[in-house]
């Protein structure tokens, strides 16, 4: 019976990893491909990258989803069913829209998709922590979650491009993904094993928590309109067709909204958020670690921000080629890189791993510069025979560009290694009392580069071209490497403290 219960829990973790990974590409690279084939310009595609902003702010509403329970549905399974049902409905609605003819409406629904996806991630992480109550299950559970997550990204980020190429229809692909999420919602509600969460982050008033969250939203909107108003008074037109002016508005709105949101949250005493943030910033070097987290994969984020658009619009690769090379093969290589990075970290200290993998990430960006200079077909091609895997098929043999495969291989392997080192840093920085909120905060900051470089990348590429852009991605990776080198002593100290804490836990266990 114990074995069956453990198998049920681990199967649930695998399934939820898949459900969590499926929407990510649909707000990122798959969406980029749809925009590219629908005729949307590169700068606008870059601005569409901002729809992923909810992933960087999920820690703000994580305490509310941890505290409140949907009526009759259960605390974890209820939120899972609601977010997954919302994702299904949103994807089905998006399948009936055109990004080129209805850009504003399409972007609004895409933002909602990202919000629901980020919210699902919060609950999936909490469910996994509650379900795997035996420490012996943690390692296997984490591996199953990552495997399910990456498998879903192959479906929505790789196979989806092949389907879109064969069907000549991205709306049909999004409708299918919506159906899959609808099935996931039903499975979450009726088949997932129930879990019992033992404690809440703080014993504060629920009314005050909601009021604090509402005040924080008031701060966000106040900052947004304040920035727009000030720039308008200075003579800038928010409706200007100049992409640099559009970018100025975006950056100013974000810069004003964040501090005002924090200030309003403090005024309204949003206790769960304030206590968890205060706990983190009480650590020595907290601000420096946050800066390192943002900078560490910034060059990687720049290089990858417009990869799909670059390959389809810039080099005229077909969607099927991009799906097979960049998404299916690329994601498996990322998994391989993560395994290699994990194995190396058994021998390397956190500092050495971060420094070595950061340098490798920087060097890998030269690959995109090389393919931008040499172009498609420079190194010949590799034949891919026809295949039929029931859910996806290739009717005729296709050729894959060998230079593209080489660049994708190096970039994904080094990126996977860098991700492992970064995740190890995030885990070491978490306070055990606020693990969920701290990890949501730190992982959100780790996603800042991936989300917010996109509009800058789009405007920059339109101005200087692909070759100069990828050289710039190498230069922008340097601060992360330098920051890692400068923080050698704090990183070594953090690693030693984390190891000592783990040893103490095992003795008490």
Automatic annotation (TrEMBL):
<keyword id="KW-0813">Transport</keyword>
<feature type="transmembrane region" description="Helical">
    <location>
        <begin position="466"/>
        <end position="485"/>
    </location>
</feature>
<feature type="transmembrane region" description="Helical">
    <location>
        <begin position="247"/>
        <end position="265"/>
    </location>
</feature>
<feature type="transmembrane region" description="Helical">
    <location>
        <begin position="78"/>
        <end position="97"/>
    </location>
</feature>
<feature type="transmembrane region" description="Helical">
    <location>
        <begin position="109"/>
        <end position="127"/>
    </location>
</feature>
<dbReference type="InterPro" id="IPR036259">
    <property type="entry name" value="MFS_trans_sf"/>
</dbReference>
<dbReference type="Pfam" id="PF07690">
    <property type="entry name" value="MFS_1"/>
</dbReference>
<dbReference type="InterPro" id="IPR011701">
    <property type="entry name" value="MFS"/>
</dbReference>
<feature type="transmembrane region" description="Helical">
    <location>
        <begin position="324"/>
        <end position="346"/>
    </location>
</feature>
<keyword id="KW-0472">Membrane</keyword>
<dbReference type="InterPro" id="IPR004752">
    <property type="entry name" value="AmpG_permease/AT-1"/>
</dbReference>
<feature type="transmembrane region" description="Helical">
    <location>
        <begin position="139"/>
        <end position="163"/>
    </location>
</feature>
<feature type="transmembrane region" description="Helical">
    <location>
        <begin position="402"/>
        <end position="427"/>
    </location>
</feature>
<protein>
    <submittedName>
        <fullName>MFS transporter</fullName>
    </submittedName>
</protein>
<keyword id="KW-0812">Transmembrane</keyword>
<feature type="transmembrane region" description="Helical">
    <location>
        <begin position="40"/>
        <end position="57"/>
    </location>
</feature>
<feature type="transmembrane region" description="Helical">
    <location>
        <begin position="207"/>
        <end position="227"/>
    </location>
</feature>
<feature type="transmembrane region" description="Helical">
    <location>
        <begin position="439"/>
        <end position="460"/>
    </location>
</feature>
<feature type="transmembrane region" description="Helical">
    <location>
        <begin position="353"/>
        <end position="382"/>
    </location>
</feature>
<feature type="transmembrane region" description="Helical">
    <location>
        <begin position="175"/>
        <end position="195"/>
    </location>
</feature>
<keyword id="KW-1133">Transmembrane helix</keyword>
């Amino acid at each position: 019976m114990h074995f069956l219960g453990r198998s049920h829990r681990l199967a649930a973790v695998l399934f939820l990893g898949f459900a969590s990974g499926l929407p990510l590409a649909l707000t990122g690279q798959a969406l980029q491909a749809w925009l590219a084939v629908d005729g949307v310009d590169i700068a606008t595609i870059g601005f569409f990258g901002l729809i992923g902003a909810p992933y960087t702010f999920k820690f703000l509403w994580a305490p509310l989803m941890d505290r409140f329970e949907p009526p009759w549905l259960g605390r974890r399974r209820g939120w899972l069913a609601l977010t997954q049902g919302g994702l299904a409905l949103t994807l089905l609605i998006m399948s009936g829209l055109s990004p080129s003819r209805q850009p504003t409406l399409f972007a609004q629904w895409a933002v909602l998709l990202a919000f629901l996806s980020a919210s699902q991630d919060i609950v999936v992480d909490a469910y996994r922590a509650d379900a795997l109550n035996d420490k012996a299950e943690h390692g296997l559970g984490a591996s199953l979650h990552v495997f399910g997550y990456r498998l879903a990204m192959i479906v929505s980020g790789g196979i989806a491009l092949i389907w879109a190429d064969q069907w000549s229809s991205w709306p049909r692909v999004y409708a299918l993904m919506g159906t899959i999420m609808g099935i996931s919602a039903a499975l979450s509600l009726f088949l997932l094993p129930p879990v019992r969460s033992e404690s809440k982050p703080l014993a504060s008033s629920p009314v005050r928590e909601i009021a604090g969250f509402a005040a924080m939203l008031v701060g966000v909107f106040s900052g947004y309109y304040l920035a727009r108003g000030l720039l308008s008074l200075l003579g800038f037109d928010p409706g200007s067709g100049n992409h640099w002016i559009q970018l100025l508005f975006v950056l100013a709105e974000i810069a004003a909204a964040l501090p005002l949101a924090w200030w309003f949250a403090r005024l309204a005493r949003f206790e769960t958020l304030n206590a968890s943030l205060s706990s983190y910033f009480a650590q020595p070097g907290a601000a420096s670690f946050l800066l390192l987290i943002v900078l560490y994969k910034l060059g990687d984020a720049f290089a990858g921000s417009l990869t799909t658009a670059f390959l389809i619009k810039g080099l005229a690769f077909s969607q099927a080629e991009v799906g097979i090379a960049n998404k299916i093969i690329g994601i498996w290589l990322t998994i391989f890189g993560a395994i290699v990075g994990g194995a190396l970290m058994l021998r390397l200290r956190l500092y050495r791993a971060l420094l070595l993998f950061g340098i490798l990430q920087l060097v890998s960006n030269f690959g995109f510069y090389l393919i931008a200079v040499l172009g498609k077909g420079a190194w010949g091609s590799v034949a891919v025979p026809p295949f039929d895997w029931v859910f996806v098929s290739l009717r005729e043999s296709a050729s894959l560009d060998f230079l593209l495969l080489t660049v994708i291989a190096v970039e994904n392997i080094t990126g996977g290694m860098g991700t492992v080192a970064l995740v190890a840093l995030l885990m070491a920085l978490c306070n055990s009392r606020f693990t969920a909120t701290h990890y949501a905060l730190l992982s959100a900051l780790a996603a800042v580069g991936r989300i917010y470089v996109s509009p800058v990348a789009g405007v920059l590429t339109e101005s200087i071209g692909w070759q100069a852009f990828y050289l710039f991605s190498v230069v922008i990776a340097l601060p992360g490497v330098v920051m890692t080198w400068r923080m050698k002593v704090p990183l070594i100290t953090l690693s030693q403290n984390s190891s000592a804490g783990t040893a103490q836990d095992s003795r008490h266990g």
